[in-house]
């Protein structure tokens, strides 16, 4: 039987039962995008989205294992759901990155026997078959594989937003940063056929989407795998990230382009030049620093030094007018000394990031850094986190002040929470702007707003 047959069988079996589903997503934007595909599949089978968790007949967990707290959240929720299983006979499925770890699979099998389906990051497309086995054959299903299968195109998708869309351009990661579990659970880098990507974005534009975010663990490695995971294998001119960006920039109807995440090591001059020339690419770029110390960076296997990062940031800001940077930072990597941590603060002072996502190092079994004996004590890690946060907070206050008097192009998200007569939206750097509508514009429109006041947690503006 093919996947379409499984979809049909399940659909026939559950029709007229008005069954509902819920998907809980624990991870990054790639994980979110996978959840949109999972939602597309289950809706094809006849499930509709539940309004509240308790009414769901099918609960799907899309897990993350990048840090320990993501795992803890899953187990908390799984405990809660056991009762629902007993009262509603709810089907429980767990997928995502965590299920690619053998120890987690074993834990689920041993301690959470009421789970019906486990599936991995490479087997989303076969979820219809899994559900078929549970509903029609009354079986428990384990559908996790380690190999990086061919890229599956054409899955249905149920997007979370009507105006902004995420498009995964490549799967997996080859970088093997020594702290990170992602390459183990997501497999090798696999670039999608550019024609499939562009077709998806053209379709989005036709449907009224204005903004796309191109996703991948290292988007600027796009094409480096020679498209060997595409079926059939692809010969194409659009064989790197810069060329792909230009093509996306040419699509009518798309007004804003973002991407997540590039790797500093592969931030070549042609990518910088392309961004400069492509007016739709937002002027805030996420560029993960991780640490500001060259020795730590080497041990992290990041492939750049403190000086190289600073030079790159400088060069980008020089070549792309009004460019702002956001970043990810890990504090308390094994062996990190006080002086080495100071280097991270130094880079933060110098680059003045618009946004910083800060993480306390979390030991991930199976990664190289996890086996080190010089782990930094929890207390010190937390102290460093607080110091970094304090520095960042003081920078944010000054940054907000600089917005006053500037014009920002933002998408109208809806009425302001505190004052329904006003609209709100966000700058590309994620700062909330509240403004009075003119009466002509509607939700989803991209408008120019002049910032007039800084209220610390939000900015006030006037529509132009
Ligand atoms: N591919 C992306 C990041 C993916 S994971 C990149 O390289 O930028 C998102 C972020 O989680 C990373 O940037 C890193 O800051 C953080 N992270 C990854 N592993 C971690 C760990 N073991 N402990 C703490 N933070 C971690
Ligand atoms: Fe993890 Fe490094 Fe790959 Fe990012 S580039 S996903 S941090 S291994
Ligand atoms: Fe988490 Fe997997 Fe993303 S581990 S951060 S959901 S790639």
Distance between the termini: 58 Å
- Indicate the proportion of strand residues: 15-25%
Q: How many beta-strand segments?
A: 19
Regarding quaternary structure, what we see is single chain
Unreliable sequence segments: none
CATH architecture of the largest domain: 3-Layer(aba) Sandwich
- CATH fold category name of the largest domain: Rossmann fold
Structural category is alpha/beta
By CATH, the superfamily of the largest domain comes out as Methylthiotransferase, N-terminal domain
Task: Note down, in words, how this protein is organized.
This protein is an alpha/beta fold. The chain has 4 domains: 3-143, Rossmann fold (3-Layer(aba) Sandwich); 161-282, Transcription Regulator spoIIAA (2-Layer Sandwich); 287-398, 2-Layer Sandwich (Transcription Regulator spoIIAA); 407-463, Nucleic acid-binding proteins (OB fold (Dihydrolipoamide Acetyltransferase, E2P)). The protein is 36% helix and 20% strand. The strands form 5 sheets. Strands 2-1-3-4-5-6 form a 6-stranded parallel β-sheet, with helices on both faces. Residues 66-67, 179-180, 182, 217-218, 261, 263, 288, 290, 328, 330, 359, 361-362, 364 line the site of S-adenosyl-L-homocysteine.
